[in-house]
Amino acid sequence: MRKVLLVTGGGRGIGAATCILAAKKGWAVAVNYTANAKAADEVVAQIKKAGGEAMSVHADVSNETQVLAMFEKVRSSMGPLQGLVNNAGVIDVSARLDEMSMARWRRMFDINVLGSLLCAREAILQMSTRHGGKGGSIVNLSSAAARLGAAGQYLDYAAAKGAIDSFTLGLSKEVAAEGIRVNAVRPGLIDTDIHASGGLPNRVKDLEHLVPAKRGGTAMEVAQAIVWLLSDEASYTTMSLVDVSGGR
Ligand code: NAP
User: Fold this and answer.
1) Which are the catalytic amino acids?
2) 17-51 residue pLDDT tens
3) How many CB atoms lie within 10 A of CB 37?
4) Which pTM does this prediction carry?
5) 194 C-alpha to ligand 1 centroid (Å)
6) Which atom of ligand 1 is found nearest the CA of 189?
7) 20: domain CATH number?
8) Which of 140, 147, 177, 213 is placed for a possible disulfide with 86 were both Cys, Cβ 3.0 to 4.6 Å?
């Protein structure tokens, strides 16, 4: 039976690789974007060209009104969700804590933490057997930064990802008896646009010597773990924080 998946920030990077791989495995995929409609439409076109089912859907995950409208649009177009990937995330420029503003922290936590809580809440209302759903799987994007701390770069981002780890552990227990598995993937240094968005386009090359595997990872290498966690092959896996970091 066809299953419906929503990937936040699905137009680029790890989210885009996840959408493309999940569609290959038979998921009908809703590709969320906030600013880059073109990138999301390209992912949708690529999936459709390969014979899959996909739609793009706009929402800033930190905006409750937009998120509610997104979940309703996906449900009415594709049916109730069985999968959610809380992938949308942002960093900021490198700074020390004593140089950071409240406005920066609010954006960091609004998008990376509250956006994930909000989307998970709406997914649970569709998936949970408590609410008449058929169960499902949620994968949250954390980061190796949650373990490493990102001192001198963006410890606000690391703290937000630490919150995602705690959120994953708690929510997995809360909904385990309602047919929902909740896991997180913690990528290490992955070659995507995110580093340029923080002003460090060469960050992966510059830091890859610190990785035991001596290279950065690809978005598809992270997507493989995410799509496995979504699948029935991971049917007894919940409350796991899966490191995809080349040993870092
Ligand atoms: P990316 O290439 O910069 O892509 C970020 C995606 O998030 C874009 O599709 C963007 O949408 C979307 N997004 C940003 N703010 C949003 C908002 N408010 N609402 C909805 N969507 C929003 O990032 P990435 O490297 O693939 O990262 C994906 C996830 O993995 C993030 O959670 C990140 O923290 C995590 N991660 C990445 C790395 C890494 O090294 N790359 C390492 C650890 C963890 P638009 O296309 O519309 O702008």
Assistant:
1) 157
2) 999 999 999 999 999 999 999 999 999 999 999 99
3) 12
4) 0.99
5) 6
6) 40
7) 3.40.50.720
8) 140
